[in-house]
Each structure stands twice: as structure tokens, then as C-alpha cells.
Amino acid sequence: MEKAINRQRVLLQHLSPSSSAAEDESSLSASVCVAGDSAAYQRTSVFGDDVVIVAAYRTALCKSKRGGFKDTYPDDLLAPVLRALLEKTNLNPNEVGDIVVGTVLAPGSQRASECRMAAFYAGFPETVPVRTVNRQCSSGLQAVADVAAAIKAGFYDIGIGAGLESMTANPMAWEGSINPKVKEFVQAQDCLLPMGITSENVAHRFGVTRQEQDQAAVESHKRAAAATATGKFKDEIIPVSTKIVDPKTGDEKLVTISVDDGIRPNATMSDLAKLKPVFKKNGTTTAGNSSQVSDGAGAVLLMKRSVAMRKGLPILGVFRTFAAVGVDPAVMGIGPAVAIPAAVKSAGLELDDIDLFEINEAFASQFVYCRKKLDLDPEKINVNGGAMAIGHPLGATGARCVGTLLHEMKRRGKDCRFGVVSMCIGTGMGAAAVFERGDCVDELRNARTAENNNLLSKDAQ
Amino acid sequence: MLVSDCCYPCKQTNISTDLGLSFPQPVQEYPDPQPGSDLPSNQTIPIDNQKRDPKEKESEAANPNSPKPQKTKKMPVFKTPFNGYAVKFSPFYESRLAVATAQNFGILGNGRLHVLELSPAGPISEFASFDTADGVYDVTWSESHESLLIAAVADGSVKLYDLALPPASNPVRSLQEHSREVHSLDFNPVRRDSFLSSSWDDTIKLWTLDRPTSVRTFKEHAYCVYSSVWNPRHADVFASASGDCTIRVWDVREPGSTMILPAHEFEILACDWNKYDDCVLVSASVDKSIKVWDVRNFRIPVSVLNGHSYAVRKVKFSPHRRGAIASCSYDMTVCLWDYMVEDALIGRYDHHTEFAVGVDMSVLVEGLLASTGWDELVYVWQHGTDPRAP
């Protein structure tokens, strides 16, 4: 330790203007590190066994039943993103150990078969297995986390976590009868509540006003429109060639969908104020301040860092932690407020350390509540819009948020180090995952213009 | 000692007796600069001429027909896991570069020596790397063997590495004689068989590749010796820069130093000889200035170069241009000067985001610069271009 102190002293004397070795009144002096980062977290941890994300892509998200994908088979939504992962990274498909697809509403076995078929369309050989996972709205994120966990456990080195939902093909519905036992268990009965009612519960219990909700919706549309206009989504959206059938004439038209069609650039508070509450009389949740019902898919390619470096693939992000928590089903929207602190804590970080958030806007009420409860800076959350503008295809959302988050972190440069993806989950849960910016293997992006010519790193400011 | 066949044409020069020393006839010299390779004296490279607003970049990408600014060659970047301390181009291969790095800014932890391969149109790749128990503060290539390099390690040892041998047999040798950190190394470019190590234990040691112990120890400085550099023309002469605020010129054949230059009021962190004038050397100091001295008239500096806003960490004379000096400083910039010109600052690069502590100019490729800093990045670029990729 003595050696370290001596070295520090020698270096400090280079910076101190005094000529004598005695203690002088100098403008520079050593002090205990007052950096904002948590001291416990090592600044540079670049280990070969980190699980890294090398590519993340999604389809455009389109309105169900009326939008661009209304006549598209679900497997035709998944196949293009899987193929994009292979093509953009030049990966040999044989090396992929598993494909895990988060998907919610479709009948389990059928959807699992559809995903297997989609893998074949995408060019994967028969040797690559496929499975699905269902934790309701977090399924896409759960898929990514499952692949990361399997890589860490050593089951395979390269995996794909994806999400897929076609709410045109599979609307939300309950098949068969309901077990009468639910009448004895309040919380079990609450699992059957329509999502909109849970939104009203959150708004009522935690005092989120209609104005706040509409404001959040306007903001979401504005940001999403700005992102689309400046071409920010071009990095992550894979164009899908499909057909649209005109409902009146039955004519088929071949189209290529590459833009989210749910975004309303001109949404204003007054337009939203006109909408009537949909779920409860005198409620606050309207179609405008709820997430849209959409079709879409997303996929994320994960592997060990040592494998990525060997292949020379740029590292988009590093998977750090994942947490799933349970909350009261009647107010399921509060999920992120519990899940985010859990995931951040298990990463050894503080909430202050997180530079960017993607919190799913299932409903403006729960989104606003979580933002206020955690005291987060709105400038860091859903900077390119959220589910109210872009859409919420249940199983795909988690995977598409990962892609949106990591691409935005890449654009923001080295300053934007940690990001969080989180969502609430129907039946009373929440999930969150912490990602770290991919550190530079070959490419450096410092996209932000510096306001002042202060070249010190964020720690030292 | 016999000198092996030299690759440069031998030329008789006038023996300078002004110092009162008798130098042997020089056996090699750097070739004279080509006519036209010097920049005209009134040309200045504009500062930050390549920085572009990211929005501008995006709109440009959206409109491919807009006229693009002149295309600069993509100069790559290499990220080291530890903080950079020194870079050195190989004298044999123009695409090879050695980088000395140390963990935790060299204060506590391990070190790593990287040998990087530069490819003309692509990224920098790592050719080899060696881990050390303590930080590596400096690295130098052997002038006699193309695969040999020497690392100055912060635990006081000097380690020899041979790239031709498998990693298991490296380091070939570890010379532990200094009692404190070894700060710099320099290989004799004339004799090509010996090298100097300067240490914070106030001594300079002379070593040869074949001997396991040092040949000579020069102990005169009163504080850390930061750098010692051989004269490019005279095989036995070297200069040393020390924290006791003096530069000393030594002759190996003499028992002690032959000249003491009280060059600055503050610590002197680096020195170098002019490759085209064997009597001129440059010193860089904690007082943020760089001074050029003529040993024949050492009371007054030939030139004082001010411009850095913090201590100057390293200086190097250009092997291609008579008056050009590259310097890197704690103010995170790398500057290029020409002391023979009225407006001396001819280039300023602020690509580093932490202290810039290592800089080198390639002997084999004219105008090629490399720098590294505590931001863990190694940049290689051509003078006049932007170190960061377009």
C-alpha cells in the first residue's frame, strides 16, 4: 500500500504547481473520490465470460386488425428478425445453441410449432432447437434473460432471445369456464380483472390524474414521432415484406412494412381529452392513454464476450441482471416500481447510476405512478416514445425494448453507461433487467455535442 | 564493439569539439529530409477541423447527394483493458506497435504489454500481449532483433520479451536491479546492443542483451529519473531528465555526467535529442513548457514552447522533419510543434479524454503518430488527419 501512496504522490506532484516538496497552498490536491458512481462497482469490468448482446432487431409494430400486419402470419413476423440476426452478423446458424421466444396469447403448443417453423424460414438448420416462454407481458424480456442465464450456466455459448405476438391472430380471451374457487381467494379473482380495470385501480389508489395521463400519452407520441422522423429506428427495424388484403374488395397488395403505424405525430391534450373512459364510468383510462394493441416481433442475439471478440463482432450491450417480482394483481401496474430497484440492486448499482430507461407504457396511469414513485428523471425514460405510441404486442415488447434501449445507448456515447428495461405484468408481477453499454471493441460513438468544453469524465464532475 | 552492417549510408561528419569531448566518427545517420516534405512555414493545421455536429452527420446520411467534406482515411482506435502508459513503433515493421499499460492508472494492480498490428484499411488488431504483476510504464523495441522488446515494469524489473518464442517462454529474462519503479527505457540506435533504464530510485542503468546484470549504474540525480535517451548520432552519449529539475548529459566512457543543465524550475518529465542535429535536445517539464536546448550554448534555451495547460509528460523529436517535436500532456492533448518556425504550434489533437501520457512518431512511415492515455485508448493517425474515425 505504501508503494501505491508513493506513486500517487509522484503523479500528484506533476500536477501541483509548487516547486518544493513541502505542503503548499495549491489549487490541486488529492481527495477521497467523490465520483457519483457507487464505489463498490468496478469501473472497468471486461471479462470474457460476460454475456453480451451483439445484435438486436425488431419489426415495425402495427395496429392489430387494421394495421400493416393484419394479414400476416405470426411466423412470418418472427422469421425476418431471426434472419436479420444471422445476416447482419454473418453468424453461422449452426452455432446458435437455442432460440427462446416470448409469446403470450396463442395456444402454447401451436405457437411453439410456429416458432420452430419460423426458424426454418429464417435459414436455421434442424439442429438448432426452439422453445417458447410465457410470463405474460414480460415474455420477451424473460426470453432474453433465460438465454443469458443459460449461457452463464454453460448450456451453450450463443443464443437468441426473441418475442412475438400477433394480437390480430390471437386476441385476449379466456377459454373455458372459471374455477369457482376464485371466489374464495380475492387475489386469484383479481387475476381475472381486465387490464384496464387494474389501470383504473392504480389511478385511483395512487392519485394519478387524467391530465397527467394524457400528458404522458402526448409526450410518448411526440417522442416516437421525432424518433421516426430523424430515422433513429432505422437501425433497429427490419423491413418485412408481406401482403395486405383489402377487407371490402378482397384484393391482395404486396407491401413492405418498415415504419410503426400507430404513432400519431399530431396528438394533443385537447384531442385526448375528448376520448371517453373505456373501462370504468367516470374513470381516467381511455384508448388514448393506454398502450395500443399491436402485432410485431423482436429478437436479440446473445453470446459470451470471448466468443464475440473471437468473431470480431461489435458489442452492442452487456447483459447484467434480471429480476422478476410479484405485486398485488389488482394494481398490477406498479410492477416496475418494485422490479427496477430489485434489478438495479442486484447489479450492485444505485438508481442514480442508470442513464436510460425503457419502461413499458401499458397504461399512462401505471407509467406515471412508477416514474413518480422512483423519482426518475423523465428525460431518461422512453426517450424515443413508448407503448402508447409505438404499440404493445405482448410477447414481443420485452425484446423490442432491449433493441430500442441498446441502440439509443449506442447513439448517446460513452456517457450513457447503464440502461434498464422494465414492464408490469398482468396478474400482478413486474420484471426488470439491467444492461450495460457495449464497450468499444472496434467502434466508438460520441454522438452528443458537448455544451461546454469540459473534457473531464462524468465521474469527476 | 563491432558495429553490424548498417542500413543507412555511412557519412563522415565534422567532429564537434566545442563540448570538449571527442566523439568517434558516426557510423550511421538518419537520411536527410526529402525536398518538399517540409510544410511551408506559414501553414497551420486548423484545430478540430474534423469535428462535426452529429446532427449534421445524420442529415448528411439522409441526403447522399450533399457534397461531402474531403474524405480522410479511417484512422483506427484500439481499446486496452488497462490505462495506457506508453507507445512505441517497431523499427523493423511499419505496422507493428507496442503499448505499455497498467491497471488502475499505474498506481496499484497488474500491467499488460500489447503488441498491436496495424492494417492499412481496417481496425487495429492485437498480435500478442503479455501480463505482468505490476504496471508496465514504458516499452522499447530492440534495434538488433526484430522480435525482441523490453518492458519497464513498476515493480523495478526490466523484462525482455521475444515475440518469436511461444507465450509460455516469455518473458525471456527479468532483470531486477532497480529498487523502485522503472520509468523509461531506451535502446541504443547506434550500437544496437545496449539499452538504458531510468528509475524512480534516482539511477540510470546501462544493460546489454547478453548480460544478466547491468553493465553500469549512473547515480547522480537527486530525485526520480523520468527519462534517458541516447544521442542518435553518438554511440556513447545520452541525456537524462529528472525530477530534480535538471537534464544531465552523460558519456558512457566518462565516470560521471559531462553536463548539468538546470533546464526548468520544476520537475522535468521527458527529454529527447534532435535526430538531425546532434547537439540539440528538448526537455518537457511540469511547468507546462517545452524548451529546446543547444548543448554548445546551454545557458539559454534555443526556444521555449508554451501551449500546454498542464504538465507535459512526453516529448519526441520527429525522425522525418528537422524541427518537429511531438508532445503529450496531462491536459489530454497531443501537440505537434516546429521550433524552427515563427508560430511553433503546428498541430493540436485533443482526442483523448484522460491524461495523454504516451506518444511516438514512426520512423518507417512519415508523419504517422501514435498516442495513448489513461482513457485506455490507443490512436494511430497521420499528422494532419483527425485521430478519431470520420
UniProtKB/TrEMBL annotation, chain A:
Name of this chain's protein: acetyl-CoA C-acyltransferase
Membrane-spanning intervals of the chain: none
Segments forming domain Thiolase C-terminal: 315-437
Family (UniProt): Belongs to the thiolase-like superfamily. Thiolase family.
Principal subcellular localisation of the protein: other
Annotated ranges, domain Thiolase N-terminal: 51-306
GO biological process: fatty acid beta-oxidation; fatty acid biosynthetic process; oxylipin biosynthetic process; phenylacetate catabolic process
Enzyme Commission identifier(s): 2.3.1.16
Keywords, ordered alphabetically: Acyltransferase, Fatty acid biosynthesis, Fatty acid metabolism, Lipid biosynthesis, Lipid metabolism, Oxylipin biosynthesis, Peroxisome, Transferase, Transit peptide
Record GO cellular component, one term: peroxisome
Molecular-function GO term, any one: acetyl-CoA C-acyltransferase activity
Compartments, as annotated in UniProt: Peroxisome
Species name: Vitis vinifera
Recorded metabolic or biological pathway in which this protein acts: Lipid metabolism; fatty acid metabolism
InterPro entries attached to this UniProt entry: Thiolase, Thiolase-like, Thiolase-like_sf_Thiolase, Thiolase_acyl_enz_int_AS, Thiolase_AS, Thiolase_C, Thiolase_CS, Thiolase_N
PANTHER family: 3-KETOACYL-COA THIOLASE, PEROXISOMAL
Automatic annotation (TrEMBL), chain B:
Primary location group: cytoplasm
Keywords from the UniProt entry: Cytoplasm, Peroxisome, Protein transport, Repeat, Transport, WD repeat
One cellular component (GO) term of this entry: cytosol
Bias (Basic and acidic residues): 49-60
Positions of the UniProt region annotated as Disordered: 15-75
UniProt keyword Cytoplasm, yes or no: yes
Parts forming coiled coils: none
Localisation per UniProt entry: Cytoplasm, Cytosol; Peroxisome matrix
Annotated WD repeat ranges: 175-217, 218-260, 261-303, 305-338
Alphabetical list of Gene3D superfamilies matching this protein: YVTN repeat-like/Quinoprotein amine dehydrogenase (2.130.10.10)
Transmembrane segments: none
Pfam families: Beta-prop_EIPR1, WD40
Family, per entry: Belongs to the WD repeat peroxin-7 family.
Protein name: Peroxin-7
Annotated source species: Vitis vinifera (Grape)
